[in-house]
Every structure is written in structure tokens, then in C-alpha cells.
């Protein structure tokens, strides 16, 4: 079997010339993926011109189609977001909207193209909202065809208000470190199972 491929969509509002706590969190998930032989890539969405809209390609320089091709080629998709005002970032919402625009596209069996792919999420922030953000992301992925394993919402939140971020102090949190490991291993195990035994088309095609 070919190595499993994981794609991280970093929905930080910072471009790559700025430090991203969300990306630091993703790097810690990658540590486990590397041990498991999973090939992984992080895409910083803020670096791209992603148009607003509900089509696979909005034209006029829209760079989402190249990202979508990487999603299609992956076995595991992890959406990572910071928390702003208790919510996932605007880029996380936009990424989900653009994924949703492809939810009626089917594979050769007539299933949604995201069938047999596994989803997960990582969330970082200095205030409450991690579980709310994770629930929104994981429901959205499930609704468009991704399979969600147990315990794939790894997060870290500091004290309310201004204070240290994940890269400053969060990496020492035992609860978060355990959640990171569960996220990596559970997405790996289920993606491998689906690679070997895909979801049958009977009873669940879009047609």
C-alpha cells in the first residue's frame, strides 16, 4: 500500500512571514505522522488568493483549485484554526465553504469525492471557543463526506485575555499532548482501514 498522505490547512490569518501558533501545533501532529510513515504537507491559506464563492474555480486568479487538488490527493485532512471571538477564523469558514462547493462532485462509484477520506481539526487560542470551533469544523467535514474518527479535536487554550500563546507555553500541556497523539494515530488507523476497505457505494450514492 502506498504511504498515507495528510494535508493540513492552516487557517491562521497570518502569512508565512509571521509565526503561527496554529502551525506550531500542526508541526507537533506531524511529529507523530512522521513516525507512522504518513506523508504530510501544511498549506498556509493566508498565502493564497482564495476567492469568495461557491464554485470549485471562481476564476480571475482564484488559487483554490490547486489547493483542492491536494485535498483530493490526500487521505487525511486536518483543518487548523486560531480562535477569534470564540469562533474559528474567517479563513476556516472560507475553506469549508469552498470544500462544500465540491460536495456534489462524485467519484467513480457515485459517492461524494470526499468519501473514504478522514478529517480532523486542531485549534489554538487564548480564550474559550475550542470545542465550539472544533464541533463546527468536524460536523462540516462529516456532512460533505469525510469520516471523523473518535478524539480528533486536539486543542490548546490559554487563560482568557492577552497572555502566552501555544508556542510560548502550550507545548508543556499533558492533556493537549495526549490529544495530539490521539489525533495522529486515530486518523492514521482509520485512513488505513478505508484505504484497504472503502465504504461501499450501496445505499449512499448522490444519484
Automatic annotation (TrEMBL):
**Superkingdom per UniProt:** Bacteria
Q: Which Gene3D superfamilies match?
A: 3.40.50.360
Organism, as annotated: Mesobacillus campisalis
> Domain NADPH-dependent FMN reductase-like spans what residues?
5-151
Protein name as it appears in the record? BRAMP protein
An example Gene Ontology molecular-function term = oxidoreductase activity
